[in-house]
Amino acid sequence: MTKGFVTAAVAISVLTAAPAIARESLRDRIAERRADILQEDRLSRPGDYEFTLTHDGLRRRYLVHVPASFDPAKRSAVVLGLHGGGGHADHFAKDEHYGVISASEKYGFIAVIPNGYSKNRRGLFATWNAGACCGDARDENIDDVGFLSAVIARVKRQAPVDDARVYAMGMSNGGLMAYRLACEIPDQVRGIMAVAGTDNTLHCDPLRPTPVLHVHAINDTHVLFDGGAGDDAFRDRTKVTDFVSVKATIEKWVALNGAQDKPRRVLAVAGAYCDRYDAKAGGAAVQLCVTESGGHSWPGAAKGRRGKEPPSQAINAIEAMWAFFSGD
Questions:
Q1: pTM surpassing 0.85?
Q2: 3-state class of 176 per DSSP?
Q3: Does residue 270 sit in helix, strand or coil?
């Protein structure tokens, strides 16, 4: 990870020298599609890779980490990591912030970290169109579901992937986006974890149940636990929404997933607890993990945001995610 992500083909380095996202002419789009095909080299060895993909006339970017234990003769799990609003893929890939790379090495999954929509030439200050939120991605009705679906499809062409173990996790706006994926493409994403981001989709009629893990600090100052947006969290409140509460989100997915109405406590430690709503026949489980501290942060992270409350260390979000999806 210290060496950073490298381009996987000459075509990629040419593309990423241009603005991170740009509207293109038809001729440019055809050329980009040819370049996309050229760079679809198989992920046959461990390492860090950077790719671009053209979707809906926009040039998009994503990172891939293939762990040392990767065996091209076996099908691997894939975890899609979605950064928060105003963030970007490179920040999410830094281990001190989210621990994604270390978890990939520990558990053997391929980590895929896309970049949200941004007008910045380096892809900074990016957002996801998660329905009612957030930012330019929402305001311009960017097809992020289509983009992420295309990323998953490409990764499946590049490496042997276990279709039943493709998951999405996200922080804040990225967590909101994970919920939209569970609503709209549950055939491609078989489980989600949302951290500090509730379900703010505009419509949700999933074709199948999707296991849901929700992680939230009770003192979150951005996406308030009881609903709403924090007073001091956003410079421009028109770029966010009046966030749905954690309670309403959990109730919604318990119903959608056909889970038990009453939870059982599966974890109780100093500073945190987890309640699990077990799946009924043909359904999927929902689990809520709550920390007493940490504010708007990723539990277990080694490094938080400057000047803000440090992340809770009572639980580790990625460890909780992998245990949940592994059935432990």
A1: yes
A2: helix
A3: coil
67 within 8 A of 39, measured Cβ to Cβ: no
Cβ proximity of 160 and 74 under 8 Å? yes
Structure tokens at 225: 């636990």
Label residues 200-224 b or e (16+ Cβ within 10 Å = b): bbeeeebeebbbbbbbbbeebbbbb
pLDDT of 20 above 60: no
> What end-to-end distance do the CA atoms of the chain give, in Å?
28
pLDDT tens digits, one per residue of 208-262: 999 999 999 999 999 999 999 998 778 899 999 999 999 999 999 999 999 999 9
Using DSSP, how many helices (H) and how many strands (E) does the chain show? 10, 11
pLDDT over threshold 90, residue 37: no
One-letter amino acid of 253: W
Q: Is the pLDDT of residue 9 over 80?
A: no
Fold entry, domain 6-326: Rossmann fold (3.40.50)
**Cis amide linkage into residue 134, ω under 30° from 0:** yes
Query: How far apart are the C-alpha atoms of 78 and 76, rounded to whole Å?
Result: 6
How far is it, in rounded angstroms, from Cα 214 to Cα 106?
A: 22
Q: Taking 70 as the threshold, does the pLDDT of residue 118 lie above it? A: yes
Distance of CA 270 to the CA centre of its chain: 27
3-state secondary structure of 66: strand
